[in-house]
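RECORD TYPE: inverse folding
INPUT: structure tokens
STRUCTURE:
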């Protein structure tokens, strides 16, 4: 997981205490509620310059830090591929 993601996620987990965030960290058990999930989503999209697909906005995605990171990572890969295609098209 990207350190920026861990730094972004930490303030949303009010019950985390001094525990380390791992891929298995349960977001709900550590205090992420539905309203905070929306705020977190906006922060993720701003920080990582991605748009998370609507079909990934579900309880499974927000279950653990790892499941959320996997969706962000996939969206980042897709965004990077699209940007590269745009750059290549502009060179022609």
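DESIGNED SEQUENCE:
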């Amino acid at each position: 997981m990207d350190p920026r993601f861990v730094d972004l996620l930490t303030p949303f987990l009010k019950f985390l205490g001094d525990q380390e965030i791992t891929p298995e960290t349960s977001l709900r058990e550590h205090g992420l509620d539905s309203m905070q999930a929306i705020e977190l989503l906006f922060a993720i999209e701003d920080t990582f310059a991605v748009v998370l697909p609507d079909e990934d906005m579900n309880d499974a995605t927000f279950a653990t830090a790892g499941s959320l990171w996997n969706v962000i990572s996939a969206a980042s890969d897709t965004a990077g591929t699209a940007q590269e295609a745009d750059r290549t098209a502009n060179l022609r």
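NOTES: The chain has a mean pLDDT of 88.
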